[in-house]
Amino acid sequence: MMVDRTGSSVAKLELHAPYHPYISVRIQDKYYSVDAACSNRADKFVHWITHFHFDHIRSSIAGGADYLLEQGEVITIFAPLDTTQVNGMSCFKLHEELYKFHSKGKRVLNPVIPFQKIPINNSMLTAIPLEHSFLNLGLFIEKIDTEFTVLITGDWKGSSSENQARIADLSPHLLVTECRYFEDSKYQETEDRFHVHFRDLKQIKKELPDTTIAIAHVSRTYRDVHPLVSKCRKEGFIFAKKVLFYNDFADYEILEEF
Ligand SMILES: [Zn+2]
Ligand SMILES: [Zn+2]
User: Fold this and answer.
1) Of 226, 172, 168, 120, whose CA–CA distance to 13 is shortest?
2) pLDDT > 70: what percent of the chain?
3) pLDDT digits (tens, 9 = 90+) for 109-131
4) 19 alpha carbon to ligand 2 midpoint, in Å?
């Protein structure tokens, strides 16, 4: 018998598209929007940028709620304090200006450093540095009074044992990670470009048998994602558009497939 459990879900994961870096997680009544569209509801939404690669910025510039803001009200977006110099300006400053310009001052970047802890919306956020070709800060979420922790990685070098150990130490209930390529022939290229290969995730899964792993942000070179979806399902990974999680965090329900 099909039972509608929607009302009792603890968390929800939502991706925009298989290739997109956009990730939105809800835990109880709070939302965590990572490299994703902005909302004007500061009491409900946290916005986070993992790193300043164009696909991630572009994704977070989307969302047209700015006009709903009261005068003087702003959308705060947490973003890595990337001090790489670009044309005599830090990478952070450059993007701070860019967001300010395009939102007429409504979107404000808030600098975050590695391992910084931010208490907000009944939750504790921790910035988890994971090595990538740019400074990348994953988001680790602990919601007060809810036993459901989530790590959203951003882009990271999957073959790095330091990265792997950092994720294993956190041992989240839900890990949402990029997965660029799947074929063995693509392993070297994936590693050289500081991205994640499916093989890296199979390795992590062995170390974290109790973690539910959802993948996101696969390469755009895959025209058809269905073979990838089956591959993931076979190995016990989630690759879907909308997923609900229940009290026993290993218990999930796919609401919408890609
Ligand atoms: Zn990147
Ligand atoms: Zn990316």
Assistant:
1) 172
2) 95
3) 999 999 999 999 999 999 999 99
4) 9
CA of 247 to the centre of ligand 2 (A): 31
Q: Where are the domains of the chain?
A: 10-256
Count other C-beta atoms under 10 Å from residue 39's C-beta: 17
Tell if the pTM clears 0.90, that is, is over it. Answer: yes
Residue 247 Cα to ligand 1 midpoint, Å, equals 33
Distance CA 246, CA 232 (A): 21
CATH number of 10-256: 3.60.15.10
Instruction: Round to whole Å and give the CA distance between 3 and 35.
Output: 33
d(CA 104, CA 175): 35
| Residue whose entry in the numeric block shows the structure tokens 């919306």 | 121
Joined tokens for residue 108:
């404000």
Kindly give the distance from the C-alpha atom of residue 21 to the centroid of ligand 2, in angstroms, as a whole number. 6
Phi/psi at 161 (5° precision): -70, -30
CA of 139 relative to ligand 2 center, distance in Å: 15
Q: Which segments of the chain are extended strands (E)?
A: 11-15, 23-27, 30-34, 45-48, 75-80, 85-86, 89-90, 107-112, 117-120, 123-129, 137-143, 150-152, 174-178, 212-216, 242-245, 252-256
Centre of ligand 1 to C-alpha 48, Å, is: 14
Ligand with smallest separation from the Cα of 20: 2
